[in-house]
Amino acid sequence: MTHAIDESVLLSSLDGDEGLLVELIDAFLAESEGLLEKVRDAVDRHDAARLERAAHSLKGTVSIFGLQEATAAAEALESMGRARHLQDAAALGARVGDEVRELRRQLSDLKEKLLLQSFRHR
């Protein structure tokens, strides 16, 4: 399961720009559910090409936040699509969904913390 987000590493990669981090979190929260839906749909339809594309997009979005487990799961799903081997795609898709939901929870919490800190420093 997903490890905790390392706020200091994230902020360091963004030169300490908390506003930019909040924007990235907002973008992820807005896009991730739709990307997961595309993955689920491709798995349900046994559409390897669509699965490869959807998992690739999801992998890129998740990787921004530095969580290796979620990124690796999305990458494995992308590889399944590329190889046209979907035998275990449903199980892996469910794991990716769990990883992304946990990431969404952690990012929501981090966003709330950052906004509260910003408000207190005004």
Proportion of helical residues: over 70%
Low-confidence spans: none
What name does the CATH topology carry? Four Helix Bundle (Hemerythrin (Met), subunit A)
Give the helix/strand class.
mainly alpha
Overall mean pLDDT: 90
Number of domains: 1
The H/E string reads HHHHH
Radius of gyration: 15 Å
Beta strand count: 0
Number of helices: 5
Largest sheet: none
Tell me what portion of residues adopts beta-strand conformation: under 5%
CATH architecture: Up-down Bundle
Distance between the termini: 37 Å
User: Which overall shape is indicated by the principal axes computed on the Cα atoms?
Assistant: elongated
Q: What's the CATH C level?
A: Mainly Alpha
Concise structural overview:
With 122 residues, the protein is mainly alpha-helical.
Structure characterization notes:
It is a single chain. With 122 residues, this protein is mainly alpha-helical. It has one domain (7-120): Four Helix Bundle (Hemerythrin (Met), subunit A). The chain has helices spanning 7-13, 18-45, 48-63, 68-83, 89-120.
